[in-house]
């Protein structure tokens, strides 16, 4: 048990009170009171799982293992074991220099200036950010402002609507400023949908379009739309026409002469995160 009574002592007639005992959390690395550790641990587990659920399946990390110590272990031994678990399993290491950080966001900021990480392969999340940042730079920002304006004054001309970009997975238009969040949700939805199908009917995730540095927003949209049409849509095995998902395609097949006699798709839907 981690509970410890607050000790009181009297010295020279003065009341002396010791500080409440604290322990290191093996998930977040923070010190927390022993009396409230169980509540803190539950919140930390929930926060960890929420963060990992936003990542592509291949990039998700398991929850750090809780240290197993004997009942007679001291508070110092428990703290040391928890700190070691946090350092080894919870922190995010730079793939270049190996230095570890408290979370992915902090590590990514470090990577921008880490020469050892310059040639390391990027994750799907990094590619998303790069894709979005290029589109933002080309469009003049997510707000669509058209220029600098006078200091403290109004924005320059050409405001208009916020810029949007086509999702290469579900084919929907979404704001450039929120594309990273949308893309992660689409990947998760796609992978969950495909996992529910028989192995022989599963489709790979559509590939992210690779466009040149100088590509315009229109060119990026066109490349994303083409990727969605070719890889994201569900195509009728008879006539080859593409549909947003397999449920819609199955309805089409009932009246498609070219698809007569062909087996219908599995019950699981497809075509990206349709709910977004």
In short:
The protein is an alpha+beta fold and about 280 residues long.
Strand content: 5-15%
Distance between the termini: 46 Å
Strand order of the largest sheet: 1-2
Using the CA coordinates, give the radius of gyration: 26 Å
Uncertain runs = 1-14, 139-159, 267-276
Residue share in helices? 25-40%
Largest sheet: 2 strands, antiparallel
N to C succession of SSEs: EEEEHHEEHHEEHHEEH
Shape: elongated
Question: What structural class do the secondary elements suggest?
Answer: alpha+beta
The chain-level mean pLDDT equals 77
Figure out the total of helices. 7
Number of strands: 10
What does this structure look like?
The protein is built from seven helices and ten strands. With 276 residues, it is an alpha+beta fold. A hairpin with a 6-residue loop joins β7 and β8. The N terminus and C terminus are likely disordered.
Task: Annotate the secondary structure layout.
Blueprint: E1 8-11, E2 14-17, E3 22-24, E4 31-33, H1 37-53, H2 75-90, E5 92-93, E6 100-101, H3 104-111, H4 124-139, E7 164-166, E8 173-175, H5 179-195, H6 217-232, E9 234-235, E10 242-243, H7 246-254
Antiparallel strand pairs: 1-2, 3-4, 5-6, 7-8, 9-10
